[in-house]
Amino acid sequence: MQYDFGMIGLGVMGRNFLLNVADHGFAAAGLDLDADKAASLNQSAEHRKVLGTTDQAEFLAALRQPRTIMLLVPAGKVVDSVIDGLLPHLSPGDLLIDGGNSFYEDTARRAAYLQTKNIQFLGVGVSGGEEGARRGPSIMPGGDHAAWERIQPILEAVAAKVDDDPCVAYMGKGPAGHYVKMVHNGIEYGLMQLIAEAYDLLKQVGGLSNQAIHQVFSEWNKGPLQSFLIEITAEIFAQPDDQKSGDLIDVILDKAKQKGTGKWTSQSAMDLGVPVPTIDAAVTMRGLSALWSFRQEAAKDYGDNAVEKTVTTAAFVAQVEQALLFAFILTYAQGLHLLAVAGKEMDLDLRLADTAKIWRGGCIIRAELLEDIRQAYVAAPDLENLLGSAVFRGRLKTLLPSVKAVVVKGVENGIPLLALASTLHYFEALRTATLPLNLVQAQRDFFGAHTYERLDATGVFHTSWGQE
Ligand code: 6PG
Predict the structure, then answer these.
(1) pLDDT over 70, % of the chain
(2) Class for domain 181-430, per CATH?
């Protein structure tokens, strides 16, 4: 028996991805050092052609040559040690696929190293969590195009489908797959924080119960905000506590953890000079949430935000919905703007219409909006920022008054709206022809002779400030 596909790492993601591959008629072998995980795969084989083993030699011998081996192991050093362990036993032409959330610079380094060993390599972003891996994720492969062509039939079979279109496409060269996945996660952070702020407004200012918030999100999911994150948020508010009476959401500690992909997005955006303030705000809010003990004391010292509850009106809920839609559009805009710049700077050969297309299904940031976003990039492949697209211009203008009203309400009531307000200010700054940064340039030249440019003449100028 020769197996078409190998998986290293039979944690939930690896196991589910492998079973998904096997469901589509491919023979799939899995390797894990944990004997229970390997045995459990064999037990769930049923009609599928699968093999679970703890023995690397058996695993490698079972795979059809040239071999196709995917790694779904924790990002970081583990990936390098798995590769080092495999290398002496691989043959030229074998293909390694890293499907974890690897840092894109590690992917670039690994690709260059493996090329010297005649091993093909793809860095592949996989999104959709456990359920996605099992039933259809969104898949973002990048690297050697010939390697993509080899694995294309399997990835197209297992990916989520939207109107029969598989949610997988070749993202671009080198570390493109992992770069796109990183930005996907940065957008994910932004959307999640915006939704959390909408919850705060509905709860604190609107005085809505969990049940009412459940209904609001369920309704929103039928409209232009339709998305996976809005859908699961509605469900979260209907979830009873499994340990005592009450709603589960009310007993979850308000301290958000992170594994780094959002922070990497902000860091890369800073390096490239691309503003992504909603994503920055989302990362910062996770940091602020983690200062839990400090916040408990400061709340006593300064007084917690004593919200004067306004009467709940359908109009307020509608304003929050519109504000959220505005901010969703501009969070995708920031992520895609970063991709546009990074693609050029790093020569990744990205195609943003394809990126929007494969994000329409399977992934965490899937949303109805992405079809409009895809169309914006089809109409203008070199679009710098969605804010400049005719597809969104009218919509953003219509939504703007609601965003302003909601941010004002939050400020009046002491509700921290770092992501929503940042998104509003991002928009305001981008549509402002004259910003006060002429003053910053003057200050830089004043204290450091850093020079400035003029509106009325070309060239670079320096002034001896304060002298006649
Ligand atoms: C996905 C998710 C997945 C993971 C996040 C969580 O696309 O399926 O993004 O990759 O759940 O990395 O990230 P944090 O732990 O940093 O929130």
Answers:
(1) 99
(2) mainly alpha
Considering the chain, tell me which residue range(s) the CATH 3.40.50.720 domain(s) occupy: 5-170
Q: Which atom of ligand 1 is nearest to the CA of 363?
A: 7
pLDDT in tens, 266-286: 999 999 999 999 999 999 999
- CA angle 374/375/376 to nearest 5° reads 90
How is residue 127 written in tokens? 């999104």
- Answer whether CATH 1.20.5.320 is correct for domain 437-468: yes
What does the pLDDT read at residue 304?
73
**Ligand 1, atom 9, residue with closest C-alpha:** 185
Strand 50-53 and strand 68-71: the pairing is: unpaired
Pocket test for ligand 1, best of 185, 228, 267, 366 (most atoms within 8 A of CB): 185
What are the pLDDT digits (tens) for 425-463? 999 999 999 999 999 999 999 999 999 999 999 999 999
429 token code pair: 């700054």
User: Where does the chain hold its CATH 1.10.1040.10 domain(s)?
Assistant: 181-430
275 lines ligand 1 (CB under 6 A): no
Residue nearest to atom 2 of ligand 1 (CA): 127
Q: Is 181 a catalytic residue?
A: yes
Q: How far is CA 2 from the centre of its chain?
A: 36
Cα 318 to middle of ligand 1, angstroms: 30
Q: 129 in ligand 1 pocket by Cβ < 6 Å?
A: yes
Helix H or strand E encompassing 286: helix 277-290
The CATH 1.20.5.320 portion of the chain extends over: 437-468
As its CATH architecture, domain 5-170 has: 3-Layer(aba) Sandwich (3.40)
